Each structure stands twice: as structure tokens, then as C-alpha cells.
Amino acid sequence: MASLAFIQQALSELRDKGLYNTIRTIEGPMGAWVTIDGKSRLNLCANNYLGFANDPRLTRAAIAAIEDYGIGPGAVRSIAGTMSLHLKLESAIARFKGTEAALSVQSGLNTNLAVIPLLMGKEDVIFTDELNHASIIDGIRLTKAKRAIFPHRDLDTLAAQLEENVDIAKKLIVTDGVFSMDGDIAPLPGIVELAEQYDAMVMVDDAHGEGVLGSHGRGIVDHFGLHGRVDIEAGTMSKAFGAMGGYIAGKAELIDYLRQRARPFLFSSAATPPDVAACIAAIEILEASDEPVRQLWDNADYFTTQLHELGFDCGESETPITPVMLGEADTAWAFSKRLFEEDVFATAIAFPTVPRGKARIRAMLSAAHSREDLDLAIETFALVGRELGVI
Length: 391
Known about the structure:
Blueprint: H1 5-16, E1 33-36, E2 39-43, H2 56-69, H3 77-80, H4 84-97, E3 101-105, H5 108-119, E4 125-129, H6 134-141, E5 146-150, H7 155-164, E6 171-176, H8 188-198, E7 201-205, H9 220-223, E8 232-236, E9 246-250, H10 252-261, H11 263-267, H12 273-288, H13 291-310, E10 321-327, H14 329-341, E11 344-345, E12 348-349, E13 359-364, H15 371-387
Parallel strand pairs: 2-11, 4-5, 4-6, 6-7, 7-8
Antiparallel strand pairs: 1-2, 3-9, 8-9, 10-13, 12-13
């Protein structure tokens, strides 16, 4: 057996540098409050934007799906057949996103692994924002395409890169819709205009935009009124939709091609029936009412305003993602530890997830939080901020 000494060394280095991540154990459902170490804690960590992760309507849909369809699909859809439940979800996604068709895959990460390597080859070029999510980076790495990395949201550099590659026939611009660490939004209208000028495709990963931006949470394309001008919309069902899975939405021909050749679709079993049914229920709830989205934004506006008034630096966020900028990793970890001692669960985020010197607490707001929850969080941030000399 090969020696695993290099793994032991790597783990030791993580611990020595303060980068070893001790993951908390949640002892019950995911909600505005969670149980950790037998104690209830206010939860500011989850991407559960609309509170759907423990919504009884989704739970009932999942239980009914188990009774009707069983617990698993048994094999890949292209070999063992596809469940009607998966087709119902795909129709619901396409309807919700305003596209011709959609494909359901196992996770948000798999959307980028499905699309980018399939569409782009060694003769092609991919333009990618420097702060794009790791799953986009991994999808690009699986291609032999030329890559042009442009500074964050820098349309001038993107235009120059497109001009430099004007003679390359197949071009793809890929961006996050909402950038998960800072909460800022991609300049999608400008990206689309450049793509149309230079005959490039546009792909947006809307993982943190769906359920948050646009009418009833339809996402960034709806937010900017760009329907029909963005070639590929991808996202996850594990954040605002509260369950698990991923999707790709776009033209019918694109989705048909993905069904035929996308490796995550061809070589991994589909999402389970209870997950799929819960996702359908989440979409139907949002189609019927935008109240969860409005509550999310009300909570985010209140929380961020109060932190600003206390003197905290909340960065440049344009969404309910609220980064509380603390600078050095040691400060962020100490801040997170003290919050936890006061029963507020908010994890520190430091290098390599964010650049050195930009460590933070990333507070994730949810429609499930009450005003009393937010007031408690604000009071606790103020307490710890004063103790540590942050404010």
C-alpha cells in the first residue's frame, strides 16, 4: 500500500496555519434555528434563503413521492428510463425560468461539469470572471479550451479579450449571477451586449440568484429582463429551493444535446424522488406567491442597515448575502467563536476561500428569520464587535 504520509503532512499544515475546518454537527432540521451540541443556536450560515429546507409543504411532497415512486431511481435515466417525476420537474423549471426546456442533474456542481466540457473544445475560448465559483473553474479545467480570465466584473477588460480572440469561432462567456462571498451581482446586461457584438455564448450560474432576484425569485435573467438573450442558465436546487439537485435551462436543442452527451447525466443516477418532488413543490409555492422573496429582502435590508449603523463594514453586497468584513483570519475566527458562545452560529470565512486580508463572517439571511431573531443577531454582533475592537 502506498504511503499516506503526504496526507498526514497536509493535514498538519492546515492545522498549523489555522485553516483546518471543524464542521459543526446539526442535530435536527435546518431552519432559522438549529440544534448543535444539544443546544438551540440562531443560524446565520445556511443558504436556506426562503426557509424551504424545513417547510412542511415540501416535506409532505417528499413523503408522497416516496410512497408513489420509492426512494431511488435505480440507475441512470438514459439506461433505466426516466421517471415521470423528473420530467415534471424539468417542465416546472423551464416554465419558472421562462426557457424552452430544462434538464435536471444531481447537483449544482454537476451543472457546470455537464455543460462546459461538452460545449467547449481545444479550438475554442472561454471567458471567465476571476471570482467565479469553484464548480465553474472545475468545469473549465475539464476542457482543453483556451481560457481568458477577466478581473471581477470588468467589462472593459472582457471587451479587450473578446477583441483579441475575435477570429476564434466558438466563444463562451461564463459568470456567476450572484457572487457568493461578496453578494454582488454580475453586470449581465453589459456581458450580453458584448456577447452579441462578438458572437459569443453566455452562460450564467444562478445558484445564489434563483429564489432571490427577479419576479417571484426567477433569477438574474428575469431581474435584468434578458429572457431569450442568455444561452445557458444553470443553478442548484439546494439553496433557495431547499432541497437537492441542479438544473440547466435554455433552448430545446441545447437540452436535447445535454441529454445525449452530458457526462453527469449519462453516468450518474438521477436525483431521488423525494428531492425531486420537494423541488417541484418549491417552484409551485413561488409561482403562487412572492411573499417569501419579499420577506427575505425585508430581513436583509433591516439586518444590513442595523449593522452599518453600528459601524460594521458589510462590503459591497447587493443581495441578502451579508459579509461582515473583519480583515485578518485570526479576528474572523475569534469573532465566530464568540458568536457561537452566545448561541449565534455564523462561520468565519478566510483564505483560501477569500483573499488574505479579507476574512469575514458571512451572514446568510433567510425569510424564516423573525424580527426577534434579527434583533438578537444584531445585539450579539454588537457585543462581540465591541469586545474585539472591531467597532
